[in-house]
Amino acid sequence: MVIENKALMAEKPTKIETATRLNRNLGLFHAGATVTIDVSTPAGQKAKFRTTFIGYLPKQYVLIQFPDSNKLGQFSQHIKQGTMITVRGLIEGHEGAVVAFISSIKQTIQLPSRIMVLDFPHSVSLQNLRSAIRIDTDINARVKIGQNYWQTTITNLSINGCQLSIVNGEKLVLSEKKVLEIIIEDKHGGSNVKLNGAVCNLKQQTGGLSFGIKFNAQNHKSVSQLLLDTISIES
Questions:
Q1: What is the pTM of this model?
Q2: Domains of the chain and CATH, by start
Q3: Per residue, what are the HEC states of the chain?
Q4: Tens of pLDDT, residues 121-148
């Protein structure tokens, strides 16, 4: 995945290393907050799951709820002691910022519910999802144009907008500022993501159509979550 904005490349995530700052910034996660965990198998397979942040004890451990067992599939056997997990989440009240850290599973417990006990992280990364960030993506989606839905690909994404490409869409008639709805299906069985925005930067292409979408302001939280699920943050 290519990050186009040079300013972002120069501005690396802030590493938080002192105990006081670790506690303060990890404390930006509120109990019950939704987080995304990245799990890798020894064979190199990777998957992302949404789950819940429970809490932490400074310098000792972090508690994360097991994802829904129906969504884990074969990855359930790899959530065990010693497995490395990346945890990422939006900061509550700051939709344009993400906290992320890498840790290993210390142990798993079954009661009062299925919980992962993670080693307390040595560092925490903070990343602002500023409007200047635009990343290359390959996200399959549908876009509603008139009464019809067209398969499309989101080829790049930022907090304020995205670029869509429709194969065999050269006969489509679109106008600048026309409001469209984009639907992205949740591969893990959750709710679909629905975004609304106005058409801009129309470009006819051989065998297709490419155009930009400027998101409506009320979409920022959903777009922030989509960026969170897409951006890989090094901790």
A1: 0.62
A2: 6-128 (2.30.110.10), 135-230 (2.40.10.220)
A3: CCECCHHHHHCCCEEECCHHHHHHHHCCCCCCCEEEEEEECCCCCEEEEEEEEEEEECCCEEEEECCCHHHHHHHHHHCCCCCEEEEEEEECCEEEEEEEEEEEEEEEECCCCCEEEEECCCCEEEEECCCCCCEEEEEEEEEEECCEEEEEEEEEECCCEEEEEEECCCCCCCCCCCEEEEEECCCCCCCCEEEEEEEEEEEEECCEEEEEEEECHHHHHHHHHHHHHHCCCCC
A4: 988 877 776 656 778 888 999 999 888 8
